[in-house]
Amino acid sequence: MMKPNLGIFAIKGVVWNPHSPLKKVEVDMLADTGSTYTVLPESLLFSLGVTPIRIIRLRLADGRVIERPLGEVGIELESFKATATPVVFGEGEVALLGSVTLEQLGLAPDPVTKRLKSVEALLM
After folding, report:
1. Which domain, by its residues, includes 96?
2. Which residues contact 96 (CB under 8 A, 6 or more apart)?
3. Quick check: is 121 in a domain?
4. pLDDT value, residue 7
5. Mind spelling out the 3-state secondary structure of the chain?
6. How far apart are CA 40 and CA 93, in angstroms?
7. What pLDDT score was predicted for residue 3?
């Protein structure tokens, strides 16, 4: 029997194209600290007019390496907002909230409460 992953849970966010921020879309995402970048369905990103800025290599959980386009979106989670964060153009409909965006917003997932919490940033 598989153990449930306590580090992954759903969170609602709002995303937009930083170059035309008037159209915003609410998205259900899985907070996943195992994912470096936030991943959104490419159909959603194209509907917002987000364009790739480069291609990146990504290692999957099964060890395979793939290449996917990377762009930028604005994002708001609860009262925390970033005007631009990197986003991978995902295949399918899965939306993941990755660690780069979480760190950028000063947030961390709390697996007990299944919510995001504010954390101190390091300046050393």
Report:
1. 19-105
2. 29, 30, 32, 35, 38, 39, 90
3. no
4. 57
5. CCCCCCCCEEEEEEEEECCEEEEEEEEEEEECCCCCCEEEEHHHHHHCCCCCCEEEEEECCCCCEEEEEEEEEEEEECCEEEEEEEEEEECCCCCEECHHHHHHHCEEEECCCCEEEECCCCCC
6. 7
7. 42
What's residue 114's pLDDT?
A: 82
Q: Give the per-residue pLDDT at 34.
A: 84
Profile the chain (124 residues) by mean pLDDT over runs of 10 residues: 57 95 94 90 97 96 95 95 96 92 92 86 80
Q: How many CB atoms lie within 10 A of CB 42?
A: 19
Q: How many domains in the chain? A: 1
Determine how many CB atoms are found less than 10 A away from the CB of residue 97: 30
CATH of residue 60's domain is 2.40.70.10
Q: Position of tokens 């959980």?
A: 61
| Residue of 54, 53, 41, 46 whose CA lies nearest to 92 | 41
- Determine the Cα–Cα distance for residues 94 and 28; give it in Å rounded to an integer: 9
